[in-house]
Amino acid sequence: MPKLGAEPIRRAALVKATIETVGEAGSLEVTVAQIARRAGMSSALAHHYFGSKEQIFLAAMRSILTLYGAEVRGALSTATTAESRLRAIVSGSFAPGSFRRETISAWLNFYVLAQTLPEAHRLLRVYQRRLRSNLRHELRPLVGARAEAVARGLGALIDGVYIRAALADGAPDRAYALKIVTEYLDRELEVRG
Amino acid sequence: MPKLGAEPIRRAALVKATIETVGEAGSLEVTVAQIARRAGMSSALAHHYFGSKEQIFLAAMRSILTLYGAEVRGALSTATTAESRLRAIVSGSFAPGSFRRETISAWLNFYVLAQTLPEAHRLLRVYQRRLRSNLRHELRPLVGARAEAVARGLGALIDGVYIRAALADGAPDRAYALKIVTEYLDRELEVRG
DNA sequence: GTTTTTGTTGATTGACGAGTCAATAAACTT
DNA sequence: AAGTTTATTGACTCGTCAATCAACAAAAAC
């Protein structure tokens, strides 16, 4: 029953299934067969399109990072002032598309993958650098020389809130996560003297 | 060559080897044989003392959390005022005994383990609750009603700084990690009006 | 000095899983 | 209609690894 032009559809289905499977299992120790079954195909086909399990994981990770980037860009698109752009980056980081149970769990696992797989490591570094650079850029006019430090702190705090959400039971509380990070930002933006 | 009273020595050696092996591999996908070899014994003996790989991991995780707790308590022992105690908890969190490359990497992996293993989950929750409760207690006289929120923020930030250190290349920079968290604390402790 | 307890391992079992391959089938090409 | 390309899978290979077991060794107990 070969429909032509199946490749992109199959690849997308596998990426989606990978995130779901890893997220649900809470572990990278999932089999290609499990992923393939969830994506509605044989494991042989998964290997046919991706070549190896490693490549499947990398594609899934790229997908997560791409989605994340898109959500931040989306949030940024309506913001004009430095402060509103800053807040857009933060709230974009917790957009409902990314801040989901399985996505967070998959994210955590990909973090671990980056310890082993150089390409995964590279991907994560690119994301981190871009985030920090964006934050720094908007922070400069607001906190001057402290921009670098605040950008790093914000980045770390976002990661921390993420992984804590991975461990919490029940659905991740978006408003609550946002509140923690926003309050940090508020403190830093307060005029002091 | 059976030396008597070997059990506690063997167990300790296995726990140490587990942390090192997981830390170096950057993954939980290490074999019992690898761990046992590093600890200088056969894999059969590792199974003899721990029963299963799962139990070995749990013992290693308990060890990490115990060490962490001890370092925080140690730092606390010399502090008297609320603020100095608060700072002791923070700097204790980055004590050189805990804030090591392999320990951090192992920590991250155990975080993942907590997604799968209920007992690991429980252990992590106990640690988180205790940390938050300690922080809240010292924060109360300093920031009043904000104590709860600040305690949560600090906890998340510490975790975030930890996992970022796991990804950084080179030795983890203790002073730098401490600086990020300390500055957060400084902002929160500033008198505002 | 024999029995029991504690320590220890090599060899084996049994399961599982990544990746390959040969075969089949439907579409497109000429 | 014959040939080519794309899609698809069941069956198989080969390696790996957790866990078990039988056997051996030394100390303790009796």
UniProtKB/TrEMBL annotation, chains A, B:
Keywords carried by this UniProt record: DNA-binding, Repressor, Transcription, Transcription regulation
Known pathway: Amine and polyamine biosynthesis; betaine biosynthesis via choline pathway [regulation]
GO molecular function: DNA-binding transcription factor activity; transcription cis-regulatory region binding
Pfam hit, one: TetR_N
InterPro entries: BetI_C, Homeodomain-like_sf, HTH-type_TetR-like_transc_reg, HTH_TetR, Tet_transcr_reg_TetR-rel_C_sf, Tscrpt_rep_BetI
Single biological process term from Gene Ontology: glycine betaine biosynthetic process from choline
Keyword Isomerase (UniProt): no
Top-rank taxon: Bacteria
Cross-referenced PROSITE patterns: HTH_TETR_2
Record flagged with keyword Transcription: yes
Residue ranges of the annotated DNA-binding region, renumbered to this chain: 31-50
HTH tetR-type domain mapped to chain residues: 8-68
Annotated function: Repressor involved in the biosynthesis of the osmoprotectant glycine betaine. It represses transcription of the choline transporter BetT and the genes of BetAB involved in the synthesis of glycine betaine. Repressor involved in choline regulation of the bet genes.
Classification via PANTHER family: HTH-TYPE TRANSCRIPTIONAL REGULATOR BETI, HTH-TYPE TRANSCRIPTIONAL REGULATOR RUTR
Record-given protein name: HTH-type transcriptional regulator BetI
